[in-house]
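Propose amino acids for all 224 sites.
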């Protein structure tokens, strides 16, 4: 596909669509419905701050996210040796664009802020909550298409760590460990100030399903 499509923006669009659909598939999968499909330490930390996940649960979730990310890159590296490590792929590491670290930091804060703002407003809206995963997938696809050249489009410390560990690439790692949580936590603070803590229902992306919620105890919906 890389040889067939010469347009870099078009290739990013196709990659964005693939990643967006992957996020949607994970959120609406049986496992995603069970766990809440955070897959991002920044998301888990935000819901910990909002009081929607217990501290020990958050620790286990974040540990699983980092372990899963690192394991995925290592397994793929073993299955397709020479491909993932190829200089044109470089384990899909995230790195600041040509505009520099400061711009990349601001971009990561911004996209993370927008994502969490959308998640909180949609997931706590009774008419839209079932479509939270679709909104997330759309934003992921959009970010990869338009924002990736600026910061690499991480938004996820675990995702960046998995690639960095395999590639031994530590450039600006601190950026991807700080900017996404800052953006999401800022969005949470703003949401609470505007709507109050009572407006927050649960921390699962897809809640209204047959899986019992391990966070709020509801089964099959908030009113169950």
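Proposal:
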């Amino acid at each position: 596909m890389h040889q067939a499509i010469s347009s870099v923006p078009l290739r990013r669009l196709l990659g964005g669509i693939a990643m967006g659909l992957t996020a949607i598939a994970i959120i609406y999968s049986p496992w995603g419905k069970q766990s809440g499909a955070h897959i991002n330490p920044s998301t888990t930390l935000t819901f910990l701050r909002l009081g929607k996940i217990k501290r020990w649960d958050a620790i286990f979730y974040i540990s699983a996210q980092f372990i899963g990310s690192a394991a995925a890159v290592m397994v793929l590296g073993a299955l397709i040796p020479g491909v993932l490590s190829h200089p044109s792929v470089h384990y899909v590491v995230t790195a600041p664009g040509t505009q520099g670290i400061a711009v990349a930091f601001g971009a990561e804060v911004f996209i993370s802020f927008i994502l969490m703002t959308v998640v909180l407003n949609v997931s706590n809206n009774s008419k839209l909550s079932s479509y939270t995963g679709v909104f997330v997938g759309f934003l992921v696809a959009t970010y990869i298409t338009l924002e990736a050249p600026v910061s690499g489009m991480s938004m996820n410390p675990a995702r960046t760590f998995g690639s960095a560990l395999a590639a031994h690439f530590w450039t600006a790692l601190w950026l991807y460990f700080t900017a996404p949580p800052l953006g999401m936590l800022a969005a949470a603070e703003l949401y609470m100030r505007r709507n109050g803590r009572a407006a927050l229902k649960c921390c699962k992306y897809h809640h209204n399903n047959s899986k019992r919620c391990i966070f709020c105890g509801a089964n099959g919906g908030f009113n169950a």
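The chain has one domain: 12-199. The first helix runs from residue 8 to 28.
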